[in-house]
Amino acid sequence: MTATDPRKFPFPPAIPLIALLLSWALGRMWPLPIAWPHGLRWVGLALFVLPFALPVWAARIFRQHRTPVNPRGIVGAIATDGPYRFTRNPMYLSLMLEYVGGSLLFQLPWAWILLPVVFLSLHFGVIIPEEKYLEGRFGETYLHYKTQVRRWL
Prior knowledge:
Blueprint: H1 14-29, H2 40-49, H3 53-64, H4 90-105, H5 109-138, H6 140-148
Helix pairs in contact: 1-4, 1-5, 2-4, 3-4, 4-5, 5-6
């Protein structure tokens, strides 16, 4: 990372993890009486567990391109295959899906209140700075990729 590198956040998974823990704590202090529909925990379990495959796949693609998974590492290449054909941010997409899954699985109504904070923190605190870094590092190549693949989905 250089002095002009806009990427500052060292561990993006901490954002949804801390929000889920905070949601649990808020629910203990100030419970919100929510009647959760029957079976919603199974949906939550699926959304909490299945998205873990996405960052594993994305990390495998990074290794194939010999580029670091570390969000502040020196990127050697733009990955455009694997999950990167569908989303520019499969790892962050998986974090959001896991967050929603965790909120349903553990029945955390406060997590829904914090959802915009989690999304905006990832979007503006992690993704936008990464995009600025990649634009500066790869120029037209990355700008072209941005026109071909959506940021989230």
